[in-house]
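Moderator note: this is an archived Q&A kept for reference. The question asked for a predicted structure of one protein chain; the sequence and the answer are reproduced below.
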Amino acid sequence: MYEPIEEVYFNWLYHKVASTTAPKTPGLTYYELTRALHSTEYAWLLPGDDNRLEDGMDLRLAFKRQTGETDPTWETFPCSVLEMLIAFSYLAAFDTECYDAREWFWVFLDNLELSHLSDNVADVEAIAHENVDVFVWRTYQFNGAGGMLPIPGTKNDQRKLEVWYQFCEYLIYKDLF
């Protein structure tokens, strides 16, 4: 049976952050949430965050290498928030020893107040888009609350720091370095 490449790629991404062996029970799956994240474009606003976009796009190269995919048409879509978060999770895992990539992904979703949005929650897509818009357009609070990396008591306006520097400060705040 033919499955569109976009669906194969989405399932490949989903497998990186959520269990594909769990029963298809709405309380244990996160397909709606990850689809909402994948349907939202990651837009960078600060210099340096374009690297987060490129990291997300690089997942497509890894997918092509792993699967042997040769159809280039799906690669032209903008980087999604899901791709950015997964790629950044891998970067975080590489640079720290406290969590693996999947754990970092869920830390970030917890900070974005999205981790509770399993498939049995009503209005997953609406809630996800609302919270993700706050993150992408940097309308979260000075200390990062509402964003991916909140840091209570910070002296730095997290809205004006690229994600990598927010992450470095977050590691210090959480004593994870």
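Archived answer notes: The mean pLDDT is 93.
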